[in-house]
Here is the input.
Amino acid sequence: MTQPQLESIEAELIRRVCGGEPQAFEELLRPYERLVYATAISILRNPADAEEVAQEAVLKAFSKISSFRGESKFSTWLVQITYNEARMKLRKERQHLYESIDREQQDQEGEYWPRDFADWRPIPSELLERGELREALQNGINSLSPMYREIVILRDVQNLNLKDTAAVLGIPEGSVKTRLHRARLQLRDFLAPGIDGSWSSGQNYRKVRPW
Amino acid sequence: MSTVEISCVEVWREISNYLDGEISVELRERMRTHFEVCDHCTAVLDGTRNIVQLVGDGRIFPMPDGFSERLYKKIRERLSP
Here is the structure.
């Protein structure tokens, strides 16, 4: 389905919801459940909190649907609401920590250089079926500071394009590129110690390079 | 026509944009020529590409069991007066 086709189907569903047929909202939402959940977990890092925020965000989107003007895609609008809800929850719960998070973010704006230059042996995606690699990737993503984590989730996990990612986060496209770049290199270094055959040989994950 | 050489540092800076096709044809060509002769930068490129592909697989953050059911239950509760 092309983007204009999708948009016209969604516009019709939105008209039905606004016109007193709230059941159409489920059909509108279904393709984006995962997107909403992933956005929430990228900020909250905890499945239970992410689920709670996802539900709140969806209900909020439902109650605000008549204010959706179609200036952005429905999915972008939905992610934006989820993103705001998740940030609000974080702010409420960690008010005392929040300032330090903001400061930490600024401190990391410098350039990041790769640290591991050994030949990269491809890690096959079939290995994701085994919990170990999935867990290592989750840990890697969770170890990024919030501004890099949300970029990776939106761009690489959810495949939002550059423009939509910038719109959701309210930052320039150039910043999306710079942050994504750093996040990817950091993740690569995070996973690099496992590449000496230990990912694909079936052995346990070993940290073969101590740096 | 020979391309202007590019340093490793410049290549690292653009690896992510290279993967996303967000660079000029001219820069792309200079980087491609560099990858042919530089093992370190090729390792960075291969690793980054591999990570992007793994992260985009969709199996990393599975939704909790019953997530959808609970979500639609909430919506229906809201809908029924």
User: Anything to note?
Assistant: Residues 121-211 of chain A form a domain with the Arc Repressor Mutant, subunit A fold (CATH 1.10.10.10).
